Structure formats: C-alpha cells, structure tokens
Amino acid sequence: MHLVPDPVYSATLTAIKDLTLMSEARDKTRPRVIVSRRLPEPIETRMAELFDIVLNPDDQPYRLLI
How far apart are CA 1 and CA 53, in angstroms? Predict the structure, then answer.
C-alpha cells in the first residue's frame, strides 16, 4: 500500500508551524512589564496583548529583599 500525503493536511501543518515560530519570535521581542498591583481587568487584558506581563495575583506590595 502506497500512501500519498494529503496536500491540505501538509499545508495545515506548515501553517501551524509558521504561526508557532512567529508567536515565539513575537514573545521574545515584547518588552516584559511587571505589574505590582491589581489593575482593572480590561487594562490587564490589553497589557497582556501588548507586553510580556508578570502580574501580582496577591495584590500585595512587593518587598525588596536584600
């Protein structure tokens, strides 16, 4: 039995691979933002779209450890 690759399946795999690579490249170029206090949900959502954000889920002030 000889299997012939499905062109649609192959194109889909290629597109997924390309999108994954683009996403990884974009994530490496986005500035990281550390959000020290809770913000309104729409603001946190928008920031997550624009930046690589680190949220403070406890909403407590950070302490500097020396």
Answer: 52
Rounded to an integer, what distance in angstroms lies between the CA atom of residue 29 and that of residue 24?
A: 9
What distance in Å separates the CA atoms of residue 55 and residue 38, rounded to the nearest whole number?
A: 8
At residue 22, does pLDDT exceed 90?
no
**Nearest Cα to 36, choosing from 44, 26, 24?**
44
Domain layout of the chain by residue ranges:
7-54
Cα(61)–Cα(65) distance, integer angstroms: 12
Q: What is the pLDDT of residues 36-59, one digit of tens each?
A: 889 999 999 999 999 999 998 888
**CB burial string 26-45: b at 16+ within 10 A, e below:** eeeeeeeeeeeeebeeeeee
